[in-house]
Write a structure and sequence with these properties.
The protein has a single domain (about 15-200), classed as Methylpurine-DNA glycosylase (MPG) (3-methyladenine DNA Glycosylase, Chain A). The protein is built from 4 helices and 8 strands, in the order ααβββββααβββ. It has helices at about 15, 20-30, 120-125, 140-145; strands spanning about 35-40, 40-55, 80-85, 90-95, 105-115, 165, 175-180, 195-200. Strands 1, 2, 3, 4, 5, 6, 7 and 8 form an 8-stranded antiparallel beta sheet that branches. Helix 3 (about 120-125) crosses helix 4. The longest helix is centred in the first third of the chain and has 8 residues, at about 20-30. It is globular and about 50 Å long.
Length: about 210
DNA sequence: CGAATGATCGGCT
DNA sequence: GCCGATCATTCGA
């Protein structure tokens, strides 16, 4: 059993999360390591695909028009908390809330390249061997990492947090970042054309909707 | 209180 | 490539 090297790498800071440039932050997240320590199981993966959502003008955002509900409330908090919601009754979708308090915006993590805790991910996904279906897509990624709506609002920078993001010092080159329209938001009018989806070009773990 | 909706996935063809 | 599951959330009556 290998030692769990928790805290070996620096976590993204509060100042990063509270920054107010969500497209820049979305690009920055590519290559960062999303980690969870849930039910005694450590799992991690490198972020390879992300999408930005920003109220009040973004029709695809749950907080469009600054709609404040019990579910969207966490998006209005200061950056650095998790926004996790249930989609189609089964998928727990993980987002990173960014920006100052009062401004609802979040980045959906759509795919990760699995790194640590592969056995736990396989078990949670009921799979026998690793392939791109393990973590390529927001729903399956959430399942593999043990995400659950009960953790919505979790503070990513808290000392004992179950969910956090590490900078392991391998930034993705600007030239390898591609962008395009977001997935599944065709009904969002002109917002559907915004290139607010970012991914690492030629990375096999990017979700199947790759452009 | 009832009904529509959805930032998706896996199985089947 | 297509199709249906599945349920919390939201909104309107």
């Amino acid at each position: 059993m290998a030692l769990r090297l928790k805290q070996t790498y620096p976590r993204l800071s509060q100042s990063f999360y509270s920054g107010d440039d969500i497209l820049f932050q979305s690009r920055c997240l590519l290559g960062m390591h999303l980690c969870t320590f849930i039910a005694g199981r450590f799992t991690s993966g490198a972020i390879v695909e992300a999408e930005a959502y920003q109220a009040p003008d973004d029709k695809a955002c749950h907080a469009y028009g600054n709609r404040l509900t019990k579910r969207t409330e966490v998006m209005f908090r200061a950056g650095g908390v998790a926004y996790i919601y249930l989609c189609y009754g089964v998928h727990h979708m993980f987002n990173v809330v960014t920006g100052p308090a009062g401004k609802a915006q979040a980045i959906l993590i759509r795919a990760v390249q699995p790194e640590e805790g592969l056995n736990h991910m396989l078990q949670r996904r009921k799979m026998s061997k690793v392939n791109s279906r393990l973590t390529s897509g927001p729903g399956v990624l959430g399942q593999a990492l043990g995400m659950h709506t009960q953790y919505s609002g979790a503070e990513l920078t808290a000392p004992q947090t179950k969910i956090w993001i590490e900078d392991r010092g391998f930034p993705v080159e600007e030239s390898k970042i591609q962008s395009g329209p977001r997935v599944g938001v065709a009904s969002a009018g002109h917002c559907a054309t915004w290139n607010w989806r970012f991914w690492i070009s030629d990375n096999p773990w990017v979700s199947r909707w790759r452009a």
